[in-house]
Design goal:
homodimer; 401 residues; alpha+beta; BirA Bifunctional Protein, domain 2; Rossmann fold; 5-stranded mixed beta barrel; 5-stranded mixed β-sheet; elongated
Chain lengths: 401, 401
């Protein structure tokens, strides 16, 4: 994409109404726009990154057999009354609204109730199990704390996966598969080194659950690393004894639900015709929180530093008064399938470099006087100070690695 | 995908609570699930089709330079009060809710107000124009009529494109480009023959607008074809005189907004430093309504007939007690990049064929006794009665066409 066409612009100054690092940098770089506290729009660069993250998650969910669906935000009261989760005393994050005819509706903050209800029509025999279903769907949560940028918002896309098994043993096997998939996701998103599978409370569903916690100064949780090599930790909420605590952000969680949401109506008959409730699990990742965490953890004083797999573009091609030759290289890179942001704007080098550092695309390729003199590109990785002189062919070979 | 793994099942009977053909067929075939009147979930087959439709629209929007974003559903009251569209007397489709702190919020039914507001930070000079921005975003409309299946719902993804031009002439040029893109979209979605660019009322924005209307018995509009060759029509709401009317479904619309939403704050300075309001247009397509219209218009007594570009899969591979060889052909097709639903279930041929007709995948490939005897596949297009005997190589060549 040509940067001269991009409708967003970078800002030198932090927005006055933001305190979190992720919101400040993402706003300055033109990735997001704030509609109100805890509610953000994704602008072209931000949506590209969000889509990259969702693409990684989707691939890993498909690999473990997840079937993708898309459920509604609008929720019928009756379904949630059965489990006691309609009441505002029990669930304090509902946004509620109503139909013109008067019936009260909720805006889903999760989907255990409607998905169990929906599946009653499809599950009857043990032969129908196991399977798992996931979606990327906008959740609504009426948060009172909404000062963490895109890490805790009132409206956000969540990847929620639900599993349906014959029994606890079958469930445990799938639960382990999800844990491995989650590790792969956080690794691909560039957070593998700092993310720990953390034993935590199971809330109202089970005794324990697992969270994936990324060590981060702005995190709201406290964890203690119990095994650095295996990347294991424990959440302070369930720990006994005197441990060393670090702040961390919960980037994912996996829950054993048991039969809480399948009871009474989501049942299957076993080989002997006996009815049992389906054994369930649920597994969440908030893609935007993951984007926010990447910014919190990996940025530097100049701006954002995107890992390759989640960057909005792979290459930032910066032309310094060389638009004619740069145009040719831009076309070559595009033809090779490389995603390029082409800074073809009429600005000084210093401004272009500052924008490039702020936006944080992994590889910056400058076409300046080294090119006009000896056809060499100046190639610099965002997370390194080294500038390498390369021919276009060598750059392409490097990008293919 | 293996059909034995798909969690949905087909139904022989129409659901008791549906009257529209699209909802009946899509429910029977396992594409959608009804949460309540006018609110549907998309199940794996349905989501695949919806994604195909969105993919076509996205490609055509990108071709005309549209920049994709993703805005919030939650809307601040103040923005809509300025244009008079907060009031329920003026806009009768709002779903409203409120923050815990008490402030009233709306759930966006469209996005002219927030997008104009958001763009004030990016537009200042004539050099910033023109550009266009689009999104696929969940809209909420508190409809009292919600009996048309997925063609008129209370919650739906809409592709809304907004254009920002210097003046009316520049706007008109882009408006024509969008009209051409829309024609391409409806053609690719299989509705080209029955879809007419229709002059209609401009509502409160302008004297006229254009709708894209697909001739369809269950449509809520009446149009008269004014030029069959050029696919032009007029909506009864603005027609004078005695014409012949046909029922039609509005599958898209394009509006000249002028400066209604840019006034007073979305301005640019011209070469002389003089300020002007940006000239806007808005352009909508509801992907789910398009899916519903395809079902209404193209299905037959046996089920759905998907056009190739929007089908959930390209090939329905049906094994009749030949799972071992079918497995090999399934792998070959997958390796060639063909999207295949593989009916590996242990059912009678008649049931498999009935399901295949109901689901409506364009090409059915049967592996039965013709295969065991002479390695020939029985290939039948969903919209034809002819059965062709083909080798796997010939099938692949045929699919590549």
């Amino acid at each position: 994409m040509r940067q001269s066409q991009l409708f967003t612009k970078t800002r030198r100054e932090a927005p006055a109404d933001e305190v979190s690092k992720n919101a400040i940098l993402l706003t300055r770089a033109g990735f997001i726009n704030k509609e109100m506290a805890g509610v953000y729009d994704f602008l072209p660069l931000g949506l590209r990154t969000l889509n990259k993250v969702m693409g990684i998650i989707r691939e890993e969910m498909n690999k473990i057999g997840g079937q993708e669906i898309f459920m509604s935000s609008l929720q019928r009261k009756e379904l949630w009354e059965r489990t006691g989760r309609w009441n505002d005393q029990n669930v304090d994050v509902w946004f509620k609204t109503h139909l013109k005819e008067g019936a009260e509706l909720g805006l889903g903050f999760t989907h255990e109730e409607p998905i169990s209800n929906m599946l009653e029509q499809f599950v009857s025999s043990h032969k129908d199990l196991p399977f798992s279903v996931y979606q990327f769907q906008n959740k609504f949560r009426n948060e009172t704390r909404a000062k963490s940028g895109i890490m805790r918002t009132r409206e956000f896309i969540m990847k929620d996966l639900y599993s349906f098994s014959l029994n606890e043993a079958e469930h445990e096997a799938f639960y382990s598969k999800v844990a491995e998939a989650y590790k792969t996701i956080f690794k691909r998103a560039g957070l593998g080194d700092k993310t720990y599978m953390t034993r935590a409370s199971g809330g109202s569903f089970s005794k324990f659950s697992h969270e994936f916690q990324t060590v981060c100064e702005s995190g709201e949780d406290l964890i203690s690393i119990t095994n650095e090599e295996n990347k294991e930790a424990i959440n302070k909420e369930i720990a006994e004894g005197d441990l060393e605590w670090q702040k961390a952000v919960e980037v994912g969680n996996i829950f054993t639900l048991g039969t809480k949401f399948s009871d009474p109506d989501l049942k299957f008959k076993d080989e002997n015709g006996e009815a049992h409730n389906v054994f369930m699990g649920s597994y969440g990742i908030g893609p935007a929180r993951l984007v926010g965490t990447i910014v919190e953890v990996l940025s530097d004083e100049k701006g954002i530093v995107w890992p390759k797999e989640v960057a909005p573009f792979r290459v930032h091609l910066v032309s310094l008064n060389q638009n004619e030759v740069a145009e040719g290289i831009y076309k070559t890179l595009n033809a090779e399938g490389v995603e390029v942001l082409f800074d073809d704007r009429d600005l000084r080098a210093g401004e272009k470099f500052a924008d490039s550092d702020l936006i944080g695309i992994p590889t910056r390729v400058v076409i300046g006087k080294n090119y006009s003199e000896n056809q060499m590109l100046e190639v610099k990785e965002r997370n390194s100070e080294e500038v390498r002189m390369m021919s276009t062919e060598d750059l392409l070979a490097d990008l293919r690695k």
